[in-house]
Amino acid sequence: MPERLPVPVVDAHTHLDACGAVTAADVATMVDRAEAAGVTRVVTVADDLAAARWAAQASTWDPRVFAAVAVHPTRTKDFGDAERSEIERLARADGVVAVGETGLDYYWDYAPHDAQQAAFRWHIDLAKRVGKPLMIHDRDAHEDVLRILAEEGVPERVVFHCFSGDAAIARRCVDAGYVLSFAGTVTFKNARDLHEAARLVPSEQFLVETDAPFLTPHPFRGRPNEPYCTAYTVRYLAELREQSLEDVASAACRNAERVFQLPSVTTG
After folding, report:
1. Cα–Cα distances in Å, from 85 out to 46, 59, 91, 126, 261?
2. Which of 1, 85, 162, 176 stands 20 to 30 A from 217 (CA)?
3. What backbone phi and psi angles, to 5 degrees, belong to 217?
4. Which residues touch 9 (CB under 8 Å, ≥6 apart)?
């Protein structure tokens, strides 16, 4: 377990179900472990209908847990009216704080690009209709993601989950007012482009996340990830950005509260 952070932070993107949580007791145990490291709240994110139902339910089990619902771009091959209807119903639930993760994934060949793009456009519209932030998955598709956002008109709040672009892409996102969320990948020693991106993002435009159980931060890369590991990424970002740990953690917390409209907590 990492040393507890001096200021509480939010894991802005995790998958508690994929980490092994099934019941309310499982969720409480996992979030207790995160809270011991200073990660006091989490957003658990869906990638298909079953996960969306579970995430929305989990957000009712524990006041430290919130949800995001969508159909992941790699699962949009058969994204039809029934799926749209249920995602919209779930997106309106009180504990659901974002529409996501949605976007484009050109790395995997699980869904045609046109199907992904149509689903992405629909999720953008949904986020605007329900008044909640859009949480974007962008893998090897930067230009198309930015183009579609410009064509559709963006919701008030846009988050690039597990930001994977370089400094030039980061600058375009920042200039557009988007929020960039950094996962354990930013701690990888060979991620030089990502390091440059993380350095230039203004303090009011970044979040921290785990994307657990994936992308465990250095020095535990390759092992199972959990929300408590957010603390490692926060510490690395502080060193990378040459800021105090307190300043980075406080900014990440404030930004999560603003973006996801979470109640403020006393820090320190």
Report:
1. 16, 20, 10, 11, 24
2. 176
3. -70, 155
4. 38, 39, 40, 208, 230, 231, 234, 249, 252, 253, 256
**Mean pLDDT calculated for residue range 179-184:** 98
Residue 164, pLDDT above cutoff 70: yes
- Distance of CA 98 to CAs 12, 49, 127, 156, Å? 10, 15, 8, 12
28 with 65: CB under 8 angstroms?
no
Cα separation, 122 vs 103, in Å, equals 10
Contacts of 107 (CB under 8 A, 6+ apart): 139, 140
Q: What mean pLDDT is predicted for residues 152-168?
A: 97
For residues 10-21, give the mean pLDDT. 98
Whether omega before 227 lies within 30 degrees of 0, making that bond cis, reads: no
Q: Which residue has the higher pLDDT, 220 or 74?
A: 74
Q: Please say whether the beta carbons of 87 and 49 come within 8 A.
A: yes
3-state secondary structure 197-228: HHHHCCHHHEEECCCCCCCCCCCCCCCCCCHH
Across the beta sheet with 65-69, what order do the strands follow? 9-14, 39-45, 65-69, 96-105, 134-139, 158-160, 179-182, 206-208
Which residues touch 150 (CB under 8 Å, ≥6 apart)? none
Question: Is pTM, for the whole model, over 0.90?
Answer: yes
Q: Which residues pair with 208 in a beta bridge?
A: 182
